[in-house]
Structure formats: structure tokens, C-alpha cells
Specification:
The protein has helices spanning 34-39, 66-81, 97-107, 130-142, 255-264, 289-294, 305-317, 322-332; strands at residues 9-16, 21-22, 29-30, 50-59, 87-91, 114-117, 151-155, 158-161, 166-167, 176-177, 185-188, 191-194, 216-220, 239-244, 267-271, 298-299. It is globular. Helix 3 (97-107) packs parallel to helix 7 (305-317) and helix 7 (305-317) runs antiparallel to helix 8. A hairpin with a 2-residue loop joins strand 11 (185-188) and strand 12 (191-194). The strands form four sheets. Strands 4-1-5-6-7-8-11-12 form an eight-stranded mixed β-sheet, with helices on both faces. Strands 13-14-15-16 form a four-stranded parallel β-sheet, with helices on both faces. It is an alpha/beta fold. Glutamic acid binds at residues 17-18, 60-61, 93-95, 118-120.
């Protein structure tokens, strides 16, 4: 089913992960090149899309770091600005896709889509999903309808927006979901069909403005938590995201700890639930969302804790001040009005 018009050009950047993992004994490890991944996809040549395979990294996705992603964003930014690509695909481990896709989304301003994909079953297993996911990712990246939609995540025939997608199952082929919105669209007979588009203001930062390597911690609050892990934290980090209970609550014992931290570094209040917004103006007890926001914590809104941590990292790395951080979270968290 060749696309009409000039031949579309998509670069596939291989980063490793299960989609590229092989091995006989001792467990599988990322090993296949981007060329090998592309060659293993039935029907890719028949799409008529010009595919260029690039070996960028070959790592488990847990071991990718900020420098890998800023380098990748800069490379894709340079090539899209030069008009060399109609879209880019990234193949990587699924463990961190919800995070890498969002970090790339913060850096990506070009209209050409970046599509991140991976596999839940590696190439040595029956029913490996990597080739199908790569084929659909390339088709999505090449299709004119996905222009201007930022970074997308495509697995299991579903197209997700980077700010909304989450990994919600450890092993299932259906592991990715966008709990607050549902997917943007689906692959239907190999064609990306968007049912909806991204809403709200895009928040972006320039990758070439990244100066430092801030350290941003993520602390999940549990029942009866006394904050032992937070002691002395302000001396070791540049920012903190709190994955709080429910709509943004912590035990009363944590209030003075977070109050003191928020005087020293930006502290973002997110919810550990994984779907739904943090609130701002409902509960009035010590440790409630009202109490914590009045003490200077910054509301994450609809951003989940992992994505809130990346936004705070990107803002701190580009020298944003307190007002800019607050405004960016209001926009990204869906409560700027
Ligand atoms: N489940 C992960 C994957 O699907 C493990 C490996 C990784 O994230 O790199 O790729």
C-alpha cells in the first residue's frame, strides 16, 4: 500500500531493549542492530517508505540516561530542521518508554512526528510483537495526519500521546494505556487513524539550552510514612517530586519535612494513583493538597509523578526560575486558566 506523493523518509533510531534482545543462555540482552530490526519486518519494503536505520545506543532502557536523550533530541532536531526526514522512529526498551517519550516531547518542536516503540515479547519468542510494532510505528511516522502531534508512542496498534501514555502492565502485549484520555488513535489496516488530537498548550524547552545536570528525586508516599528518606535531601538534590496519596495528600508527620524542603528547592506535588488529576482546593486538613500547596509545593495536575520529574528536570536544566516552573506546570498539568 504505497503512500501517494513523494517518497516519505523515516529514520529508525535503535536504542536497544527487548525488541532488540537475543541470547541463548544467561538471559537475553539487547544485541540486534537497527538494520537487523528493520530487515525483520515483513511488508516494510512494500510500504514505499524510505527507511534509514541508525544505531544510536544498544542498552536496556533502564540504563538510558539524560545525556542519551538530549543527544538524540538534538540529532533529530537538526535533521528535521534540515528537511531530511518526514518522521523519526525510536526503538527501545518498554520499561522507560513513558518517560523517554515525554522527555523527547519536551524537546521536540518540529512538525515531523517522533514515534517511540518497542516490544513486550522479544524476537526469540513465539508471537514476538516487535516487527508489527516497528511496521506500525514507521507507518505512523510517515503519515501526514500525525504531523504536529509531538512525540507519539505506538504499540499494539494504538497511538498514544507522550504526555498521557503509561505502562500499566509488566508483561502483557496490551501494556500501554493513556488512562486519562485513551489513545489518540489506532492503526486500521495499517493506516494511522487519529480520533482525537492533543489538547492544550505544548510545553517545550530547547535541548541546546540544557546547561546543567540537575538531580531531581522522586519520593512515593506510603501509609504511615514518616519521611525518613527525605531527611537531608535538600542538600543533595535540586528538586523533588512527591508522589502523594490520592488527590495529593500526605501523613501529617510529613508536613514539616516537605515545608522545609519547599523553602530550599522546588517540590512538585503529584499523585501516586496513575490516573486523574491532583486537586488544589478541596481538603483542609494538615497534609491535604490545600495545605501543601499553601506551603509552596507546585501542583502537577494531570502529570503523573514520572513525567512531572522529567518536566522539573528539563526546566531546572535550562535555568527556569520559580515563576517559569510554576507556569510550565500549570500548562503541562492542564490547569492553566
Ligand atoms: N520489558 C522491557 C522491554 O520491553 C525490558 C527491557 C528494557 O526496557 O530495556 O524492552
Amino acid at each position: 500500500m504505497p503512500n501517494e506523493g513523494p517518497r516519505r523518509r523515516v529514520a529508525v533510531y535503535g536504542l536497544g531493549g527487548t525488541i532488540a534482545a537475543t541470547g541463548e543462555t544467561g538471559g537475553v540482552v539487547p544485541a540486534l542492530s537497527a538494520d537487523q530490526l528493520v530487515a525483520a519486518v515483513p511488508g516494510l519494503a512494500e510500504t514505499g517508505i524510505g527507511v534509514e536505520a541508525v544505531d544510536f545506543r544498544c542498552l536496556p532502557s533502564a540504563s538510558l540516561g539524560f545525556a542519551d536523550l538530549t543527544d538524540l533530541a538534538a540529532e533529530i532536531g537538526r535533521r528535521t530542521a534540515a528537511g531530511e526526514l518526514d518522521g523519526a522512529v525510536i526503538t527501545q526498551g518498554t520499561d522507560t518508554i513513558e518517560e523517554t517519550a515525554y522527555l523527547l516531547d519536551l524537546f521536540h518542536t518540529a512538525p515531523q512526528p517522533i514515534v517511540v516503540t518497542g516490544a513486550m515479547r522479544g524476537p526469540t519468542l513465539a508471537g514476538a510483537d516487535g516487527p508489527a510494532n516497528l511496521l506500525t510505528a514507521v507507518r505512523t511516522a510517515a503519515h501526514p495526519s500525525t504531523r504536529g502531534q509531538g512525540v507519539l508512542v505506538v504499540l499494539a496498534d494504538r497511538i498514544h500521546a507522550a504526555p498521557r501514555v503509561r505502562k500499566t502492565h509488566t508483561t502483557g502485549l496490551w501494556a500501554f494505556d493513556s488512562p486519562d484520555t485513551g489513545p489518540l488513535g489506532h492503526l486500521v489496516e495499517g493506516v494511522p487513524r487519529l480520533l482525537t488530537r492533543r489538547a492544550g498548550e505544548r510545553v517545550t524547552v530547547a535541548p541546546d539550552a540544557v546547561r546543567g545536570r540537575p538531580r531531581v528525586a522522586l519520593a512515593t508516599v506510603g501509609f504511615g510514612d514518616d519521611g525518613v528518606l527525605l531527611e537531608g535531601l535538600a542538600d543533595r538534590v535540586d528538586g523533588l517530586v512527591v508522589a502523594a496519596l490520592g488527590v495529593g495528600h500526605v501523613p501529617e508527620a510529613l508536613v514539616p519535612v516537605l515545608d522545609a524542603l519547599a523553602d530550599r528547592v522546588p517540590v512538585v506535588l503529584a499523585s501516586r494513583i496513575g490516573a486523574g488529576p491532583g486537586l488544589a482546593a478541596t481538603y483542609g486538613f494538615p497534609g491535604s493538597e490545600r495545605d501543601l500547596l499553601a506551603r509552596g509545593l507546585i501542583r502537577a495536575g494531570f502529570l503523573d509523578p514520572c513525567k512531572a520529574r522529567l518536566l522539573l528536570w528539563a526546566l531546572l536544566a535550562t535555568g527556569a526560575d520559580r515563576a517559569a516552573i510554576t507556569a510550565a506546570f500549570a500548562a503541562a498539568g492542564g490547569y492553566a486558566d
